[in-house]
Amino acid sequence: MIIIAAILAAASADAVPKARQAYAGCLTNVTTDAVDSKAAREEFLASLKSKCAEKEATFRAALVAADRADGMSAQEAAQDADDQVAEYIEKMTGDFNAAK
Q: Whole-angstrom Cα distance, residue 5 to residue 46?
């Protein structure tokens, strides 16, 4: 039983870096495109959500699975995922604003 839990925890942890890289890459591409096209802030924010929704969902799921495997409650794991996604959005918004 302990071995299975350790294997599941390792598999979950391995998924996080890949999902993080894919999500961050999507956000970066959308931010660059929005800056290049001189998009309005509202349009940019909507694009982040719509164009990166699938990668965000994958990232959130990987984070929650890894956190749950590490012993966090479902609520704590969901909050951690929310916090990490919010940090990425905040960073991209800052980059967008700085480039304007």
A: 39
Contact yes or no for 85/59 (Cβ under 8 A): yes
Q: Give this prediction's pTM.
A: 0.85
CA angle 70, 73, 78 (to 5 degrees): 95
- Are the CB atoms for 51 and 26 separated by under 8 Å? yes
Where exactly are the structural domains of the chain? Answer: 2-99
| pLDDT at position 26 over 70 | yes
Cα(70)–Cα(52) distance, integer angstroms: 27
Q: Between the CA of residue 56 and those of 31, 34, 37, what are the distances in Å?
A: 15, 18, 23
